[in-house]
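pasting input
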Amino acid sequence: MSKKLGVAIIGCGNISGSHIPNYLKLDNVEIRYFCDIIPERADRAVEKYGCGTAVYNYKELLGKDDIDIVSVCTHNDFHAPISIDFMRDGKDVLCEKPAARTLEEALEMQKVAHETGRLLQIGVVNRFCDNVNHVKKLIESGELGEVYQVYTSFRAHRSIPGLGGDFTTKAVSGGGVLIDWGVHYIDLALYCIGDPTPLTCSGEAYCKLGKDMKDYVCTSMWASDTADFEKGTYDVDDFVSGFVRTTGANITINGAWAQNIGEAETFVDFLGTKAGVRLYYGGKFTMYSTLNGMLTEIKTDFATTGFDYGAEIKAFVESVETRVPNQAHIDRAVITSKILDGLYRSSDAKKEVTL
Amino acid sequence: MSKKLGVAIIGCGNISGSHIPNYLKLDNVEIRYFCDIIPERADRAVEKYGCGTAVYNYKELLGKDDIDIVSVCTHNDFHAPISIDFMRDGKDVLCEKPAARTLEEALEMQKVAHETGRLLQIGVVNRFCDNVNHVKKLIESGELGEVYQVYTSFRAHRSIPGLGGDFTTKAVSGGGVLIDWGVHYIDLALYCIGDPTPLTCSGEAYCKLGKDMKDYVCTSMWASDTADFEKGTYDVDDFVSGFVRTTGANITINGAWAQNIGEAETFVDFLGTKAGVRLYYGGKFTMYSTLNGMLTEIKTDFATTGFDYGAEIKAFVESVETRVPNQAHIDRAVITSKILDGLYRSSDAKKEVTL
Amino acid sequence: MSKKLGVAIIGCGNISGSHIPNYLKLDNVEIRYFCDIIPERADRAVEKYGCGTAVYNYKELLGKDDIDIVSVCTHNDFHAPISIDFMRDGKDVLCEKPAARTLEEALEMQKVAHETGRLLQIGVVNRFCDNVNHVKKLIESGELGEVYQVYTSFRAHRSIPGLGGDFTTKAVSGGGVLIDWGVHYIDLALYCIGDPTPLTCSGEAYCKLGKDMKDYVCTSMWASDTADFEKGTYDVDDFVSGFVRTTGANITINGAWAQNIGEAETFVDFLGTKAGVRLYYGGKFTMYSTLNGMLTEIKTDFATTGFDYGAEIKAFVESVETRVPNQAHIDRAVITSKILDGLYRSSDAKKEVTL
Amino acid sequence: MSKKLGVAIIGCGNISGSHIPNYLKLDNVEIRYFCDIIPERADRAVEKYGCGTAVYNYKELLGKDDIDIVSVCTHNDFHAPISIDFMRDGKDVLCEKPAARTLEEALEMQKVAHETGRLLQIGVVNRFCDNVNHVKKLIESGELGEVYQVYTSFRAHRSIPGLGGDFTTKAVSGGGVLIDWGVHYIDLALYCIGDPTPLTCSGEAYCKLGKDMKDYVCTSMWASDTADFEKGTYDVDDFVSGFVRTTGANITINGAWAQNIGEAETFVDFLGTKAGVRLYYGGKFTMYSTLNGMLTEIKTDFATTGFDYGAEIKAFVESVETRVPNQAHIDRAVITSKILDGLYRSSDAKKEVTL
């Protein structure tokens, strides 16, 4: 009987709920530790999932030899130190997105992964989703001709997650809508067009609608549990726009956690010389092409939509066993980090930055 | 009895049909000449409108003292020389948009206008349209708070005007979708936000879908009369994307004469801190705001939509009489020309240009 | 430490589920008794909510000094006797809507409330809902100008609650769609326009589609637990239409528990000289107005929609403590009862009745 | 060869355009006179249709023996005197709707028709339309069971025809939206349910939105040629609501030339015990019924929609030849007049009137 791989979950908040059940589905792994600095969260996880031991400080887990795999599900500010500590401790790491708060942190993580030979995968889950992989395959097969331009639109009406909490505090999160939503859109766009190298970034990340926290009007906040409207901080971007050149297609972005436009427009357009695709984020896609002198609009359907965390976790565990990094490896994710960083630097400098 | 103002129409193609009937509605002007290098066009205009004399070379009209006003309705390449010749001849000029093929030509036109003291108005008709002026008033009255970002989307599926004709020959037109459609969108955006000074431009203008003219599939071409698929030229942009900083709001643009995305998205978004407006080009607009703690979506309706050439011509004639330039004066239009030029230069240089 | 207010729930059927959890949220009250003539219902409530004592006859609770507040959640026929008995016993009462089966009963309840000085509030929950209060505020602030006409439409396709049960037996319920749904629509309309005095009622309440109970076709019945298609009764109105004059705006009504028109039209139109509002029942509203010579259509959004029983219960308890009746007091609710009564009498007499 | 019937058209304004071409399609009639008090109108009709003689005073046509048929297409105030004069002169008359400004005038017209034995048909064109006749046939065949209630909704947003012209001057038109649009809706409803006798009317006709003519905001006025915003009159109803009892189904009405609700709702609902029909005015209809225990929604389609003036004129000419009155005879139309009169009287008296 083969020995099972031991898993430690670091951070037991919302996003861990996308990791844990998917580890539990696999025969060859076993969750051995649930760690959270809020003790009740760790305790509750042990109780809920009926396995593992609760710990409240991840450093207690360094040196444990019943851990092979670590899932880092904390706030962004702990992504780098925890991932690095565990890699240096000989573990393979799946770290949630964004890789880190800043490019510097992400590059340090990448460096340690190479030095230690450990796996460092990032939770850019769209790279494992059926809709995205279908589009990638269409592009690779030449169906779209040359893809010369990508437009990513991640615009919501008034959807700031939790005013005055960790999402809206730059020191914790590294940024707002660009780093939180943009990371997914830019990453899947890069993935579909073959992970080209970014060259220039020009854009602006605005901190506007959430600044006057008490008077911000909305119908709900999707991550308001840690929010504090009285004393909390709001110093991140709620709208971002910019233009990115790469060695492949160029990318234009418009994103809003909050904007005074009511239409929700969340999609990625791949503009090719032969055909184009509009991919609805987390959903279906439509391909526009030609056939025998006719214009065609092709709607597609397939079994799995939504965000396939199961496929992400399964691929990670396979990589751990085979030692072959997959499409979500830090070497790929760091490209996205470079763009996020470039756009934030361009916004500060009020001019284009060359990468 | 007051003497009537004499008008000469230079160029009797499509767009002259938006000028001529609107001059005929006014009591104090009289169209005296119809000029076109295609003689039948000039002759046909004389017959159709029952007035004026046909001429085939505009130079014959220089020195005539029964001309006060000149409407330049030619291809873009003749905008500058004709406008300049008539201004030096002491006439007031209404020149169709874009001001000229290049920024250099536009600046020369502006210089001559100032030297001669003649009026030079450009046909940026949106500045006279009710929908645009309603939005401008809302912004000026503070209804939107600070407008920090504008998004102009002038994207059509496959709508190249006339492959192989003057529209698609850069030497004649100066460019494609950016100079032909973009000029209107950028100009109306600048107008609404108070004509700020542009600072930087980064973008790309692609020449892609029309290049293989014979195999280009579409359902129609809206200006195909002079097209020649066999021997004609197609060397202009059919897709453009970019980011523009100004001393006011920044502007992001996406435009397509042709793209492999079937959705027609032709609107301008004004993103303000208190409210936002989506203005549908040539149509209505929706304002998104808040009221008593509620989010509001305000659809507006008003008598006049579409492109009000009548108001443009009327305002021009009034300016001629009062000697007071109006909102479409070359001094304003040249700001738009700077942005068009900046984007084309950025596209060539593959980097941002500072204006 | 302040003493808590003791609550007795009389009737543990469906509607009590909107009262009980909202009492439990308040710190200063304690539910001490659950009463239902069906013993299992009372027992189940004690078990489910983990508090209180089960009783099966409300008369056992008269004279108890650990009761301050009574929620009457029974069928309509017991609203009057129970409310009156408890008021005479010195308790404050929140009675579900309609106040009673008939105007006579409602007036008797009002009389006893005045005689005893007890609070008698009626469960016209819309008076506590955000959507309704937003509309009321807009009207009060003059935003609509003079509101001259209200149209209430509460028309569903085939939605009779429970054929052959208490809802469809006039002796129990006092009527059908008019008293069950109409009470809410008319009451919220009156509330928004300032509770004017009704003057005349002309209309007809039809008993048509449910009469042949066994052959009544529908997709579901939302209150079918006590229905008995074999031996039950159906003698109430399933369609009602009429015209009501008041000292303020006039009110036109169309209502259907069941009709052979498939469109569900459940809204209230407030027609004002400056603006109008269409309020979707239990949902959002749209305001139609003018601005700078434009017609405007304003859609609104706000955090809380649906029926806010929590606000109703909270306001009731506050009224109990402050002795200040709120907007759902019997003195207001009785105005609605007069209109229901007027319409039923007009329907019987086949002519208008003057109130 | 049979002699042709001679036609005189009295009034050559808009509505005559629905009569004249339909007479011209028939072999057995000949238009011999076009009469209008505005001489150019009469002259233009002679020129346009290439037949007949222009006259400017209808009295000149009395005594002419080459006239058999008269179409009265004037303003409402001349319907009665002209129809009566021509009937006394031995002619058959097709008079536009409404029959007259008031019930008194309509009854006088009916009396003269009976005295003289002449045909007097009213232009209630819906009685000749396919959609309406299909519904009538469904009702007559018992498909809907007992039709117990009709709801007529003729509500438009801001659609007053011509502020300050004859439409909005009560002395000329007899009223506003009720007499102009309501006449059609009520007439077709009565026709479909077998022309029952009306019993009571209670309602209100409001003169609200058009009163401040200069500040009335709208996008267009469909009959603005004779409007005079400076000196004209606006003293008619722009909103009407009411309840009408008949010996058959009762009728509820809501109508608006102008209201501050943006939804256009122009339909008639026939509520039957077995099925119901929603007839879209001038369009298709949907029937809601049941089949084998299922609910069914039946959309219908047929060749002819819109307003079939051709059928109306053809039926009139046939009646002239056969001496058999058709469904648009004054004896039927006068029932509608009674309801219009009843509603206006009820509105003035603020109480129901019994007919």
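fyi Chain B has two domains: 5-126+309-326, 129-306+337-354.
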